[in-house]
């Protein structure tokens, strides 16, 4: 299988919930993430080609977390097994410079598993 992604995607082993900041509702959890996008595991398909304002907290060193806010574009969505679970691909279209730097550092930390 040929890999076409430009950025490494790091698996997120712990539960990192993602909130839609427009509705203030949890929409899913991160499956994997890169500096340019993420896979969201969710219970609903979302809106094809939809634009979202999302927020999540990533764990940092010594138990410190930080909040990352992104504008995201939903690129695709697949229903998985068991039924009612969706994998949804997002591309980040707006990520502040400080959040981008922290995200790159978090992804590059030793011990991560990549997909």
UniProtKB/TrEMBL annotation:
InterPro entries named in the record: PilZ_domain
Domain PilZ: 5-109
Gene3D superfamilies: predicted glycosyltransferase like domains
One Pfam family this sequence matches: PilZ
Gene Ontology MF terms: cyclic-di-GMP binding
Listed name of the protein: PilZ domain-containing protein
